[in-house]
Amino acid sequence: RRYSINEEGRYCMGITLDPLQSDYAELIDKTYYKGPQLHGLEYLTFEEAMDFEHQCEKKKLVHTIWTLKTPFIVAICNCDVLSCVAFQFKKENLSVLFRAEYVAIIDTEKCVGCRACLEQCHFDALHYNELPGKVVIDATRCYGCGLCRAVCPNDAIQLVDRRKHITAKDLW
After folding, report:
1. Is the peptide bond before 71 cis (omega within 30 degrees of 0)?
2. Cα–Cα distance for residue pair 14/108, rounded to 1 Å
3. CA dist 150 → 23, 61, 79 (Å)
4. For residue 16, what pLDDT is reported?
5. Residue 44 CB neighbours (<10 A)
6. Nearest partner of 77 among 143, 161, 13, 160, judged by Cα
């Protein structure tokens, strides 16, 4: 956010482990062993980190995962369309924002058509269908971020394994 809209805030989490205790030690430039400047950083417990992520979902922020060498996750960034550099690149058809291993589905028995989820989706994957009075999800547009699920008052939206979804299994 500082780069794109010059705004400070609490949006991203660095995730680390001791490089000397991992298989990645040989890949890391030895000058980094002194570590980054840690002044002003806060440390979160797992429970605090999960609460932080849930609060980000309520603010319509999409979790993006940053890796050095997959599967080594170094950060979770919480973005919105206006300030996220990855979203800006996506608009220019540059592939830096990839879909999650999940895709959202609707339980039509639980969906009451309240439309609370519609405004959450940054990918235009949710639509209201007048005839049954329910929300439908276009799996070809869904990135699996789960923001729609976070606001559904009836728990009608679930995330399922993308690899098992007939329409979305090959869309990454």
Report:
1. yes
2. 38
3. 35, 11, 15
4. 65
5. 12
6. 13
* CB neighbours of residue 169 within 10 Å: 13
Region of 113 (left: φ > 0; alpha: ψ -120 to 50; beta: rest) is left
Sheet strands (E) in 12-149: 12-14, 62-67, 73-79, 102-106, 126-129, 134-137
DSSP-derived secondary structure for 10-43: S-EEE----GGGSTTGGGS-GGGGG----TT---
Q: If we measure between CA atoms, which residue out of 79, 87, 28 comes closest to residue 53?
A: 79
- What is the per-residue pLDDT across 3-56, written as a single tens digit (0 to 9) for each? 667 777 777 777 765 555 556 556 655 555 555 566 667 778 889 988 998 888
Of 19-33, 93-107, 153-167, the range with the highest mean pLDDT is 153-167
DSSP letter, residue 163: G
Verdict on whether the full-model pTM lies above 0.70: no
